């Protein structure tokens, strides 16, 4: 059986609301690599919003779909920027998808970022796991170390512009892509 080499993708992981999709679009401007958003792809597959998928099918079904998507990316996607959902880092083949960049931020900064965005209500509503901020903080605390363990690089995004973050990532991955 032949082993598949790691793809030339940039895979952005981190807690929900940290700005993975926004940074993917900023990276596109710096690298020319096309951005793909995992949550958008899953919403398209179901023709439903994430919160509706959670409500109708449950989190377990959503996580199974993430695993299917990860397999699809592994087989079919190269030279792209992959922005993932907050729990996507748990897919078994994550390391095969590309260079893993953990966008690190503290919990309060993430919540502030969401609450001060132009479409804050929409951003909060689309994240079912942010309904209860106390539970979300527990989830954040649990995931923080897990993100660090799977990441190839950690980029602190607190109080940094999109362009600054994108340029930092571009510098980190220059020999990989």
Write a short abstract of this structure.
With 177 residues, the chain is an alpha/beta fold. The protein contains 8 helices and 5 strands; from the N terminus they run E-H-E-H-H-H-E-E-H-H-H-E-H.
Give structural notes.
With 177 residues, the chain is α/β, with parallel strands linked by helices. 52% of the residues lie in helices and 12% in strands. The chain is built from eight helices and five strands. It has helices spanning 20-31, 38-46, 50-57, 59-76, 107-115, 120-125, 133-150, 162-173; strands spanning 10-13, 34-37, 80-83, 99-104, 153-156. Strands 2-3-1-4-5 form a five-stranded parallel beta sheet, sandwiched between helices. The chain is globular and about 40 Å long. The relative contact order is 0.22.
What keyword list fits this structure?
single chain, about 180 residues, alpha/beta, five-stranded parallel beta sheet, 8 helices, about 50% helix, about 10% strand
Please specify the SSE layout and strand pairing.
Elements (H helix, E strand, L loop, with lengths): L9 E4 L6 H12 L2 E4 H9 L3 H8 L1 H18 L3 E4 L15 E6 L2 H9 L4 H6 L7 H18 L2 E4 L5 H12 L4
Parallel strand pairs: 1-3, 1-4, 2-3, 4-5
Helix pairs in contact: 1-8, 3-4
Helix content: 40-55%
Uncertain regions spanning at least 5 consecutive residues:
none
Succession of helices and strands: EHEHHHEEHHHEH
| Major sheet | 5 strands, parallel
So what's the oligomer here? Answer: single chain
Mean pLDDT: 89
What does the overall shape look like? Answer: globular
Order of adjacent strands in the largest pleated sheet: 2-3-1-4-5
**Structural class assignment:** alpha/beta
Assess the beta-strand content as a share of residues: 5-15%
The radius of gyration computed from the alpha-carbon positions, rounded to a whole number of angstroms, is: 15 Å
Instruction: State the total count of DSSP E strands.
Output: 5
């Amino acid at each position: 059986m032949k082993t598949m080499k790691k793809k030339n993708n940039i895979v952005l992981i981190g807690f929900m609301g940290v700005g993975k999709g926004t940074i993917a679009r900023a990276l596109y401007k710096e690298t020319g690599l096309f951005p793909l958003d995992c949550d958008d792809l899953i919403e398209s597959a179901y023709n439903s919003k994430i919160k509706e998928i959670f409500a109708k099918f449950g989190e377990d079904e959503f996580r199974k779909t993430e695993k299917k998507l990860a397999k699809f990316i592994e087989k079919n996607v190269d030279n792209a920027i992959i922005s993932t959902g907050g729990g996507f880092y748990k897919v078994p083949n994550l390391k095969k998808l590309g260079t893993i960049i953990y966008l690190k931020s503290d919990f309060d900064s993430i919540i502030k970022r969401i609450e001060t965005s132009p479409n804050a209500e929409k951003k909060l509503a689309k994240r079912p796991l942010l309904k209860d901020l106390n539970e979300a903080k527990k989830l954040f605390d649990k995931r923080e170390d897990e993100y660090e363990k799977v990441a190839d690089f950690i980029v602190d995004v607190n109080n940094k512009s999109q362009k600054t973050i994108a340029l930092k990532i571009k510098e980190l991955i220059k020999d990989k892509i």
